[in-house]
Specification:
The chain is mainly beta. The protein is 9% helix and 39% strand. The protein contains two helices and 41 strands. A 13-stranded parallel β-sheet has the order 2-1-3-6-15-18-21-24-27-30-33-36-39, covered by helices on one side.
Length: 434
C-alpha cells in the first residue's frame, strides 16, 4: 500500500476508534456498582432483633454480618461469654445501651495437659476434656510461659475423646511432663485484631472475676482489648471485674479512650503498651484496680492524657517505664493510691522514658501506713517535667500518708520542677536520695 493510501485508511478508522472508546467508557460507567448504604445490625435477647440470643454465639453471628460503614446495636441485658466477641472488620461501630448492655464472662475452667503443646502444635490431650466444649475460648500455657506474648489464646474447634483440637498453634515447647502445662478458658471479652477505624461505645465488659480465678495479662487480653489496631475509639464503656486488665491495647496507633471507666480489675485499669503511640485518654476514671490505675508499658509515645480521675488503685496511680517518652499529662487527678501517685519504673537511661510532661495535675493523698509518695522516680530518665501541679496531703491526723511530694531515688537523672504547689507532707515536699 502506498503512503497516501495508508493515511487515508487511518483517517477512515479514526472515527470508529473514537466511538469504540466512548462506548467502552459508557459500559464501564454503567457497570460500576453504586455505594452500599450503611446498615444497622441488631442483636438482642427479645424478639424483633435481626439476631436473638444471650450469649457469645449470638453476638458473634451478628457482628460477623458487619460490612465497613455498618453499626451493630446490642440490646439491653447480660450476655454470657464463653469466648471472645471479636470485631472482624474495619470501619464499623459496635454499640450497646450504656449501663444496660453487659458482656459477662462465664465461669472459668482449667485442665492439665497430658500430651501436646510443642511448638506448632494445636492438639492437646487433656486430663479433663469434659470441662470444655467446641467454640469455647481457651489459653494454653505452662509455668515458664504464662505471661506476655508466650501465652496463646485460641478456640476449641472440636473435641475427640480426650483431645482438644484448637484453632491456633503453640508458639513454645510447652513442658507437659513436669512444667504444669494447662489449658484454661480465659480470653479477652470484647476485642479486635488488625482493624482500623472501629468505634466501641456504651458497653460494659464484666470479667466475673469471682468465678474466674485464673489471670490473663494485658499483652493477650483484657475486658476490652485491641491488638495491632489503628485510629479506633472506645467511648462511654465500662471494663470491670476482669482477672487481668480492664482496657488494654497493644501495638497500636491513635487509639482514643473517652468517657470510660475501668474498675475492680486485678491488674491495671488502662494499659496502653508495646509500641502504642499517639493515644488519647480523656475524661475517664480508673479506680480500685489491684495494681495500677494507668499503666504505660513499653514504648508508649506521644500520648495525650487529660481530665482523668485515677484513684484507689492497689500500688500506683500512674506508672511510666521502658521507652515511654514524650507524653503529656494535663488536668488529671491522681489520689489515694497505695504506694504513690506517679511512679517512674527503674530503667537504665538508654531504655528510659524521657521528656514526659505533667502539667496542672492534682497528685494528692497517696500512700499507705509505711510508705507514701506523690511522685516516686526510680528511673534514670531525661527531662521529665512537673510544672503547675498541686502535690500534697490534704487530710489530717492518722489519715495522712503522703510523706513526700517528689522523691528522687539515688542515681536518678533530671526532673525539672516548676511552679508546683506542694503542701501538707509528713516529711518533705522534695527529696533526692544520695
Amino acid at each position: 500500500m502506498r503512503a497516501g493510501s495508508a493515511r487515508t485508511a487511518g483517517a477512515a478508522l479514526l472515527p470508529l476508534l473514537v466511538l469504540a472508546s466512548i462506548s467502552c467508557r459508557s459500559r464501564t460507567a454503567d457497570t460500576v456498582p453504586s455505594p452500599v448504604p450503611p446498615r444497622i445490625i441488631t442483636v438482642a435477647q427479645q424478639q424483633g432483633a435481626l439476631v436473638v440470643g444471650a450469649d457469645n454465639t449470638a453476638l458473634q453471628k451478628a457482628v460477623d454480618m458487619l460490612r465497613p460503614g455498618d453499626t451493630l446495636e446490642i440490646g439491653s441485658g447480660v450476655y454470657r461469654l464463653d469466648n471472645s466477641l471479636v470485631i472482624p472488620v474495619s470501619g464499623v461501630v459496635v454499640r450497646g445501651v450504656p449501663g444496660e448492655t453487659v458482656l459477662r464472662k462465664g465461669p472459668g475452667v482449667s485442665s492439665l495437659v497430658l500430651d501436646g503443646g510443642d511448638w506448632g502444635e494445636s492438639d492437646l490431650v487433656v486430663a479433663e476434656p469434659e470441662k470444655f466444649h467446641p467454640g469455647m475460648g481457651v489459653a494454653m500455657l505452662d509455668d515458664r510461659n504464662q505471661w506476655g506474648y508466650n501465652v496463646v489464646v485460641a478456640t476449641v474447634e472440636r473435641i475427640d475423646a480426650d483431645t482438644l483440637r484448637l484453632s491456633d498453634r503453640s508458639v513454645n515447647d510447652l513442658d507437659y511432663i513436669d512444667g504444669n502445662t494447662r489449658v484454661e478458658n480465659k480470653f479477652p471479652l470484647l476485642c479486635a485484631y488488625g482493624q482500623r477505624e472501629i468505634t466501641i461505645e456504651g458497653i460494659t465488659a464484666d470479667g466475673n472475676k469471682e468465678e474466674n480465678p485464673l489471670a490473663l495479662d494485658g499483652c493477650r487480653g483484657g475486658a476490652i482489648y485491641l491488638f495491632d489496631c489503628r485510629s479506633c475509639t472506645v467511648r462511654n464503656c465500662v471494663a470491670r471485674n476482669y482477672n487481668g486488665d480492664g482496657i488494654s491495647f497493644q501495638i497500636t496507633d491513635s487509639i482514643s479512650v473517652i468517657d470510660c471507666e475501668a474498675c475492680d480489675n486485678t491488674g491495671y485499669g488502662v494499659h496502653p503498651g508495646t509500641g502504642s503511640s499517639h493515644s488519647v485518654i480523656r475524661n475517664s476514671r480508673f479506680h480500685h484496680n489491684g495494681q495500677v490505675g494507668f499503666f504505660l508499658c513499653y514504648r508508649v509515645r506521644y500520648g495525650f492524657f487529660t481530665d482523668n480521675l485515677i484513684e484507689h488503685n492497689g500500688r500506683y496511680g500512674i506508672s511510666v517505664g521502658h521507652k515511654d517518652s514524650d507524653n503529656l499529662f494535663v488536668n488529671n487527678t491522681v489520689r489515694n493510691n497505695g504506694f504513690c501517685g506517679v511512679y517512674f519504673r527503674k530503667n537504665p537511661e538508654r531504655v528510659g522514658g524521657h521528656r514526659n510532661v505533667f502539667r496542672n495535675n492534682k497528685i494528692l493523698d497517696n500512700g499507705g501506713l509505711e510508705e507514701g509518695y506523690g511522685v516516686f522516680v526510680e528511673a534514670t530518665n531525661k527531662d521529665e517535667v512537673f510544672e503547675d501541679n498541686l502535690i500534697g496531703e490534704t487530710r489530717s491526723g492518722g489519715e495522712r500518708t503522703q510523706q513526700y511530694g517528689v522523691y528522687l531515688a539515688a542515681g536518678t537523672s533530671s526532673v525539672k520542677l516548676g511552679n508546683n504547689t506542694m503542701q501538707g507532707h509528713l516529711k518533705v515536699d522534695h527529696y533526692r536520695a544520695e
